[in-house]
Amino acid sequence: MPKSILIVDDNAVVRRCLRGIFEDEGWEICGEAENGHEAIEKAQWLRPNLIILDLSMPVMNGIEAAPRLKTMLPEVPIVMFSVHGGGALDEEARAAGVTAVVSKADSMKSLIGLARTFLQPA
Asked: Is this prediction's pTM over 0.85?
């Protein structure tokens, strides 16, 4: 059974692009969410192996959602994928339970490489 990913981003184009990239790598996209609140609801019943989480979203942002997701699924890595990043934000994200931060300005190879690391068979 392929490893599953939950994509959380308020931009439908970003979600669609990530879906295509991850599916090309052989991973299953178990769901998508537009904000942190929806991510918490979906993660609870989808039980993904990896969560890709945007920072800036309406209703509930990534920093607010991360600790709730981490409490619910402590073994699941959370990768914050955001246009914002660096310094204090990275520290705040990690304190909130985010495993890694990747800038949307970085090459997609960075995000795919992290996903490979986190989704490798045990």
From this structure: yes
